[in-house]
């Protein structure tokens, strides 16, 4: 069939042949009782509930095809949705994917995108169970993720308690460092540049935090100060971080920051897209989490560092 | 806050203020235990499974803002996803929505889009439980729908049996008629032109078909011949329709077809986007369904009308 021609475009292959290519040979996890190919898929929701979230990525806004391979883009699209399920204390079970692209896109690129998505879905143990392909002026990728809370309450943003330890798992500032290196055309620091293209959320740690009694949690997608600000505001409290707790992250990006004349602390406090998890714990955080501060006072959601407001930006907003 | 200024743009309002506007005052159905505002929502999945599907709409490809109001676009985006859940025999429980638009889009337009989405979601009894807003060069809307199969097997495309009655509920050819009228700048036939902008899927009839023992079902999104072709091919059988069964649909678009010099039969056989449901029944179809043909022979998925192949096109493909 036309979809088998690796040199063909999406328009030449045709929608149905391309979808056949994207779907062929994938292995669904046991919870998927009906995968792609019908009007809808059917996925287990063992505790009688399902967690659901969605994220959209626009070419040249959230990724650049001259920086990222389609494989990288696929991994990133799945990872950032998976991180949102982790941040509720859940385990991802399935993804559905909408993909818009120009008709002259090489079919092989769409296959590579799907391969990257499956790579990341396999890491979290979930299946890609359905999707939609449409013609669009640029690449658009929209993912919705489903998750299993395994009978537990979701870990929300508003549950932090005064005196709780604020802890983080996963890296901070790496993606922002990588972005700035790419943006300035600096070719060194391969690991940081790579991290900007493919985040590495700490899979499994959301569930671990929930089991350890986390009172609030979110993923660091916009920036540590911005995202912790959501927790603080929703909880009606303030948060005070310590430079001591952040020095490992700062050290990891200090050389790169020097190379571009940036402040490594800004990257760690305001850089998003690493999809680390940040949570609050009345007791000790579980293994793999590092304390970075404490919930203080009764407030309106201020986040300080060693008692002082940060003069830089807290994170990213769309538009 | 800036989001309260009806004359503001998305960029002026800012992402979080706009989201506050879109979310404020919405009433979630009882199955939604956690709505928007956290990293993910939580929705009931009473029988321990969830049906899930997704559809993406691109401005100027799937809708035009000089034909449709944002409210219409919102209704259509929800309706076409709801129809996919209906087509499995399910009941919609929740939607998540990704929305991309230029920063200079009026915030009031985004609110109108959300109002249209909620109008349609209320019709099906489901909630819009989460979303993502991003900056994009044109409007992009991606919806994922969740559904409850209420303990029943999903009604798939591949279960048709020889001798089954083929029946349809909902209208055929109206959306294609309306599209052609819009495209040719003809101002009459208001109901048909309106139908192209906002489809009216026969909500509840997917569940009714499942309860009546439907052996296969799909929604007519690409065209009756194309979509029935999927059922026939998946079932390893052929389908023969009868002009007799289709005359009501043909009559309904005959005047409009005459006005643009089109063949009304092509609209009924090949027109998509009405999101009618077509299904096969070993016994009589339930009330509200009309027989249009029969499953015949053992074949490779041919769909004929009174024994003859249709010389026109079977329906639409992307690209």
From TrEMBL, chains A, B:
Binding residues for Mg(2+) 2: 55, 84
Binding site for Mg(2+) 1: 54-55, 132
Leading EC class: transferase
Biological processes, Gene Ontology terms: thiamine biosynthetic process; thiamine diphosphate biosynthetic process
Pfam families: AIRS
Keyword line: ATP-binding, Kinase, Magnesium, Metal-binding, Nucleotide-binding, Thiamine biosynthesis, Transferase
CDD domains noted in UniProt: ThiL
Domain of life of the source: Bacteria
Coiled coil regions in record: none
Residue sites binding substrate per the record: 62, 273, 316
InterPro entries found in the cross-reference section: PurM-like_C_sf, PurM-like_N, PurM-like_N_sf, ThiL-like
Chain residues that bind Mg(2+) 3: 39, 84, 219
EC number(s) reported in the record: 2.7.4.16
Binding site for ATP: 131-132, 157, 221
Binding residue positions for Mg(2+) 4: 39, 84
More about this protein: Reaction mechanism of ThiL seems to utilize a direct, inline transfer of the gamma-phosphate of ATP to TMP rather than a phosphorylated enzyme intermediate.
Record's function text: Catalyzes the ATP-dependent phosphorylation of thiamine-monophosphate (TMP) to form thiamine-pyrophosphate (TPP), the active form of vitamin B1.
PANTHER family: THIAMINE-MONOPHOSPHATE KINASE (PTHR30270)
Family statement drawn from the similarity comment of this UniProt entry: Belongs to the thiamine-monophosphate kinase family.
Protein name: Thiamine-monophosphate kinase
Organism expressing this protein natively: Mycolicibacterium chubuense (strain NBB4) (Mycobacterium chubuense)
